[in-house]
Fold:
Amino acid sequence: MDRAFPRSLRAALLAAALTLVAPAAPWLAPAPAAARDAPASFADLAAELLPGVVNISSTQKVQARGEGPELPAFPPGSPFEQFFRDFMERNRPGGNSPGGNNHGGPPAPMHRAQSLGSGFVIDADGIIVTNNHVIDGADEITVTLQDGTSMKATLVGRDDRVDVAVLRVKPEKPLHALSFGDSDKMRVGDWVLAIGNPFGLGGTVTAGIVSARGRDIRQGPYDDFIQTDAPINRGNSGGPLFNMDGQVIGINTAIYSPSGGSIGIGFAIPTSLARTTVDQLVKFGHARRGWLGVRIQQVTPDIAESLGLHEATGAMVAGVTEDGPAAKAQIHNGDIILKFNHQDVKEMRNLPRLVAETTIGQTVALDVWRDGHEQTLEAVIAEMPDDVKEAAAKPSETPEPDRTVAVAGLGLTIAPLTGELREKFQINPDQKGVVITEVETDGSAAQRGLKQGDVIVEVQQEPVNSPADVKQRVDRLREQNRKSVLMLVQSANGLRWVPLPLQRQPG
Structure:
């Protein structure tokens, strides 16, 4: 029969056991550095900032659609459904009533539509910043201060690419101006305050943290949003996002919301992007951006492998604007831009912003990947024109007659660009290359989105003028044991580079 240990011996054994396991026990490991405590209150900061935030209402004349209220939802087959449908048709403006639009009557009357948003003062003399979409198309803009003072505003300038607008009012006394902070210093987890005009309620303060940085929400070519969980709702657009020093580090612009209300996912334009645009709008009345004159696409692992690039990085040139800065710098279609002005281009979307922020007239170095090695070119950045039309480099050789060829392993059949095929697929008379006439459903070409009527312009960055050219280059790559072939393809959606995996053919 087991005997119980004396109490003193049990205590000694327990102490020894704890001493032995303590270094390896996670629950006894040193605690992480303590997080900064949340502020006891945001009241003092909010009181200081609220006078610099304004409500913005804009109105515009719009054509009435001539449509009445929507038909209420009834169960299928309900006798009320036809009753209400007949009633609404008889009373709808421009409907079946005499003189309505369906009988060639007068157009529906104009009415005034109103939208609400937010903004903030950056100059005591009356300069105000907001979102472009808050005032877009407005005939009249009214700014209301925290104390209830309302003033008519005029538009200084706007930029739809970054979604920023600058307004001017003429106050009777100096306004409370806010200052910009450095959004690049904000870290995920930092506290932020949002102030705005949600649902037209007036100055409303909400608090949260920076949830993420560098978000691309497909709003425009320069997306680099700050994501925050500070509640942002409709009407907050154009309002400021503050750091804990009371500086504006973002312009609240968009929310992700299936319901239309805040679910804790809001997006703000960082001041590192917006501030340059604001300065240019104040000075010139429009944004002056750097322009290189290229159309680009993402470098995928298949594209990188096909060009001998060690990793999928940079921006691939898929078109060069004639007489633009890139064309003058001898940048070619198919080059991969690895560095711009000594800054790494990690992925395609980095390049437009780097170029746009470059001083017009500045000479910059461009590190490009071409013909299996890196080389450096120089370009003089120009001002982005209002209407940029991208043009791809055109091969100069004339296609020679050739027979239709099935390219084994790629799942496509190609043919020379004859007049008959140009007419069938509506291909421009000056288009060069070879046309795809058939695509196998389960082939690699179909999987990469190639279709009948697409034109192969280049293979491995070399122009092709006949099916034989394509087949020769594909066979050469197979002999080199390459895993993919890179093709420049012209489709209805424009030029793009398409990597197609190469299957080894039985010998």
